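Data card: per-record layout.
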Amino acid sequence: MEWYLKVMRDNYANFSGRARRKEYWMFTLIQFPIMILLIILDGVLGLSFEIYGQDLGYGWLYAIGALIHLIPGFAVSVRRLHDVGKSGWFLLIILIPLIGGIWLFILSCTEGNKSENKWGPDSKA
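The structure for this 125-residue chain is written out next.
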């Protein structure tokens, strides 16, 4: 939980520097159940959005949670890419169908550079 809070509180919109794998994945693994819980709460409370009579399965609570996590999610992803020696703009590789998502997943699982790079010193040091 401390890694999630570090991203949300201390590095909310910090796109510079480096983020180690543990910081990135702990943020992701805590954010995911929070968002699932918000979807469930939307359904239980009847706050789900409907379009043309079709229930979308999520509503205002999920939308607010997604907006709250949007900037720190991008920030920790960019810092994670910095840790493996890539520019933050490399995040746009996700726009390539299938292959982009797989490549970004591989990069997020890859160990960071052990030495200093242009984005800062080794994040494990």
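Known properties of this structure: The helical segments are 2-10, 21-45, 60-83, 99-109. The first helix runs from residue 2 to 10.

See the next section for split statistics.
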